[in-house]
Every structure is written in C-alpha cells, then in structure tokens.
Amino acid sequence: MNLDPQKAQIRTQLFGGKGSVATWNCLPNSATGPFTAALWCTLEPGGSVGSHHQESDAEILLCMDGEGEISVGPHTQRFERGELVYVPVGVSLSIHNHSNQKGLHYAIIKASVDNG
User: Regarding the domain delimited by 10-65+75-112, which CATH topology (the fold level of the hierarchy) does it fall under?
Assistant: First the structure.
C-alpha cells in the first residue's frame, strides 16, 4: 500500500474533534460486500475524532502505531499498537491521540451488517 501524502484525504475537526486526520482508501473500487470501506488513518499529534454514532456499518479498528484512547459507547480504553476494537452499529465512537509529538496510526474496516 502506497501511503502517498498527496493522495490522502485530510479531514479537519472530524465530528467536532480537534486537529486533522489523514485517510487513505485501501479498498479497491471493484470490492463487493460485506466490506464497505478499508481506511488507513493518521490522527495528528494531540488530535481527536469527536464522538459520532455508527449509523449503517459496523467497524473494526486496529491501532498500528502510537498511543491514545478510544471510547466505544460508555467504555473508554487505551488505544495503542496491536489493540483491536469492535464498534457495532448504533454505538458511539471517539478517538484521542495522547502524544503531542507522534501521529496515531490505525486502520478502519467497515462492513455492512445483516440483521436478518
């Protein structure tokens, strides 16, 4: 995967958070369900992604590098290298990068959920 900085989508104050998040879409356009997105993300030092609800897709987040915290619903935990977190549909999510010097690098895999 080529993480060319010029190909990143930069989102600032995402969901009311602080700072910016660079995202790269890793899912080929030809991909079919159940996966709807695969993103590599870098949250800038001291940044955050504000609380938001998972409206239509469940998510799995995997921290690749850095130190922060992640809140899923009412539960908050450390989010550091190797941590894998599941976020069901309808539940809130927020992320905070505790470092003021290093980015927080993580992947997000989204998948549609068949409730039938």
Answer: Jelly Rolls (2.60.120)
